[in-house]
Structures are given as C-alpha cells and as structure tokens.
Amino acid sequence: MRQAGRSLPEYRRVREGTTMLESCRRPELVTEITLQPVRRYGVDAAIFYSDIVVPLEAAGVGVEIVPGTGPVIAEPFRTRADLDRLPELTGDALGHVTEAVRLITAELAASHGGTPLIGFAGAPFTLASYLVEGGPSRDLLRTKALMHADPQLWHDLAARLAQVTGAFLRAQVLAGASAVQLFDSWVGSLSLADYERHVAGHSAAALRAVADLGVPRTHFGTGTGELLGAMAAVDGGVDVLGVDFRVPLDVGAARGRAGAGRPVAVQGNLDPALLSAPWEVLREEVRRVLAAGERAGAGHVFNLGHGVPPSADPDVLHRVVDEVHAWRGTA
Known about the structure:
Blueprint: H1 9-15, H2 20-24, H3 27-41, E1 46-47, H4 54-58, E2 63-66, E3 70-73, H5 95-111, E4 117-122, H6 124-133, H7 141-149, H8 151-175, E5 179-184, H9 192-198, H10 200-208, E6 217-221, H11 228-233, E7 240-242, H12 249-260, E8 265-270, H13 279-296, E9 300-304, H14 314-330
C-alpha cells in the first residue's frame, strides 16, 4: 500500500523537519522516498509517494496534513458558493508531480531493472468527505446529510472532484507510471444503494481519464465487502479489485466477477495487524492469502489489506516479501 515506506528508518531521516505536503512538492525527495522500499525489499513495483489531498492543494484548496489527525481543510465546503473554490485542475499545477514521476521511472529503469511505478489518487467520495467534514470523520454525518439533502450540489461537487482526480492520475501515467490505483478510503461507510446512486458514476469518471492510455486500473476501498461488485463494475469494469482484510480474496474475486461480468484480478489482503504476530503465525497467514489468490483465478497482486503501520518492523516486511517470492517461484 502507499504507506509502505513510512515504517523505514531511512524514511524518517529524510522526512525530518519537513511536513507531508512539503515533501510531496519536492521531486527529488519524492523520488528518494518512493525508491526506498524498492531498494530495501526488492518488491515488484514502486508506489508513487504522495497523498490523496495533493491534487486538492494543487487546485488551490487550503489543506494541511496535521500529524496524528490527517488532512484538515481550512474552509470546509458546505454550500454551492463553495464550489467556486474548486477550479478545474490543469497540468500546469502538477509540474512537481510529473517531474517526480520522470525522475522515479528513470531511476527504476537505470538501477532496478525497469521495475514499474504505480500511481494513485483519492476517489471523489473520499476527497468530498474531507472537504465537507473539514477533516477525518468516523461517521461522515455532514457528508451523508449533504448527499441526501442536496443531491444536485453533491453531484456537482463530486463531478469536479472526479476531474481533479482524473487529471492527477493522467499526469502520472503520461509522465511514466505503468498502472494506477484509485483509493476510496471512506466509501465503506455507505450502503450499496447510496454507492450506486451517488458515488459509482463519479469514480468511473475519474478512472475514465486514463482509459485511453492502456494502463491497468485498480479500485480499492476499506470496509467495502458489500460494495465490491459495484466497485468492480465502474467504467465497464476495472482491471484489478483491491480487497481489504475483512473479505477472503476468493470471495472478493467472485463478487468482482459478478459485478464486472468477467473475471477481475484481485489485490490484497493480509491484515496489517498480523505483522506484529509471531513469524510462524504470520507466515501461515501469508500462505493462506496466497492460496486464496490462486483460487481467485484471474490474477493476484499480493499486498496488505490496508496501509503498513508505522510501527511495522522492516525486517518482518522483508520476510513477507521473501515468502511471497518463494511461493511464486514454486507455483
């Protein structure tokens, strides 16, 4: 997951004295942080170092990532007049992003055998929840209230965010990213009916921004067991369905296949908490996930079922990577 580097001591050293958003604006630093897990673990892909609110800041929204809290919006979006503060995101505002991607892909080609880079962005619903709530929220009361009380305003806001997200993804691919992932961190708070009525079309629009570029597209959310079929179906069917640790991979694959009308590869889904378990327990769980991925039948990207905890032991993560590579070598 995108936080793979944050448990590393070398990550903490290079980030010292720099805020999250400041670090995301510096292409050389983004390059270094993106490459750190590749150097240490020998993983099969690099994940672009960024944050889901980076495109919001690039579009001119006042946002700060507060340590221990998360993204905080200076002026929350609550009325139609607030839409004027969210202009269309253009390539001119993403120069630092494209420069970072070019630096990363050049280094991957020169020193890491052409390891691919995966870009990512936050989905319109999750971005909207930050804008409306003003920061992280467990219950998303204001977001859901706006969605139902003023559906036209909700759809107009989500459509603008789909453009922002799509432009952010497209900039990464045009600069050299080999695949993209759309993160919908908070969408699991919705019912299936609300997801299909108020969200799915906007996620599809965001992913459609790179549809002509021929790169694999992954769709991931947390707590989305009941939504997996609908998430797999967006924009005619995604290429990879991210499954969090709450649903077995083969079950998630079956739901994705039912939604998309065709087999869909899966990504996931080791519970991050198990990284603190004894190695014998953790290894067994890694193997269980790998076996479920094989049963899924349409391809499996081994990963955690959510982000790497900052407290994770890098040596344990290395053993997990080695275990996966050993399994692949005997498959």
